[in-house]
């Protein structure tokens, strides 16, 4: 089974490499934002630059989890290859696992340009241990966003997934404080921010990368969102399975 999963992962990664627009968009936008806003305004402040780098790295990863995964799953469902794969003896798991692993690879790759900009042009600093822990800390809070991407992909058409994923992605990023520091957000947004999954993810990354004290409410809500979105994604998968294969 592991060899089949590896084969699907390799195939899906080749698809992405051959049409790298989504990968470039997900990685270049955070890096350009770093150059335009972080470097000139907070690049000389080590603490602020470190937290901003963590935020924009997660912004890129979140883009792959929500937008990239939802569009990929919705597009797969519209191809004749997908129902055929589900009828094979190995079942749908190898392709599904390959899609998740390919998405994780894209998410990690999308963080590298922001990390490079921070290292070259800002005073952002962290310890080797914090940097090593940063990547698991980036993947773990991405789980609810991958579940959101799966939910959208299983309930929407490809065109609908493009629109809905983008409509949800940017407000979540703004409310979570990924693009603007929470301290300078308007008061009503500050009140709502800890209840969003993006804020919990940011708090975890800031704690690992810069040693800040995370907001307990935001972390609890990140767990709540993970459970809720897992239930929603499972329901959407069963709904799709029931409609297409019964």
From TrEMBL:
Its main location: membrane. One of its GO terms (biological process) is response to antibiotic. It holds the Pfam family ABC2_membrane. The chain crosses the membrane at residues 21-42, 54-75, 96-121, 133-155, 167-189, 216-237. It is found in: Membrane. It comes from the Bacteria. Keywords: Antibiotic resistance, Membrane, Transmembrane, Transmembrane helix. GO terms for molecular function: ABC-type transporter activity. The keyword Membrane applies. InterPro entries: ABC2_TM, ABC_2_transport, Nod_factor_ABC_transporter. One of its GO terms (cellular component) is ATP-binding cassette (ABC) transporter complex. The keyword Transmembrane applies. It is a multi-pass membrane protein. This is ABC-2 type transport system permease protein.
């Amino acid at each position: 089974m592991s060899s089949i999963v590896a084969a699907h992962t390799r195939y899906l990664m080749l698809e992405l490499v051959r049409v790298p627009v989504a990968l470039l968009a997900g990685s270049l936008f955070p890096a350009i934002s770093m150059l335009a806003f972080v470097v000139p305004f907070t690049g000389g402040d080590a603490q602020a630059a470190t937290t901003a780098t963590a935020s924009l790295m997660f912004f890129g990863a979140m883009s792959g989890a929500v937008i990239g995964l939802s569009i990929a799953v919705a597009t797969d469902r519209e191809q004749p290859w997908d129902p055929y794969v589900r009828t094979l003896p190995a079942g749908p798991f190898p392709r599904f696992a390959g899609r998740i692993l390919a998405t994780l690879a894209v998410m990690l790759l999308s963080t590298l340009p922001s990390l490079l900009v921070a290292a070259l042009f800002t005073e952002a600093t962290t310890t080797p241990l914090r940097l090593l822990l940063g990547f698991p800390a980036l993947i773990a809070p991405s789980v609810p966003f991958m579940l959101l991407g799966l939910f959208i992909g299983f309930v929407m058409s490809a065109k609908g997934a493009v629109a809905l994923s983008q409509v949800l992605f940017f407000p979540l990023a703004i409310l979570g404080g990924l693009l603007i520091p929470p301290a300078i957000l308007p008061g009503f947004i500050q009140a709502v921010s800890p209840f969003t999954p993006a804020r919990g993810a940011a708090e975890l990354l800031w704690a690992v990368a810069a040693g800040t004290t995370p907001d307990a409410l935001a972390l609890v809500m990140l767990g709540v969102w993970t459970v809720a979105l897992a239930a929603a994604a499972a329901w959407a998968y069963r709904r799709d399975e029931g409609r297409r294969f019964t």
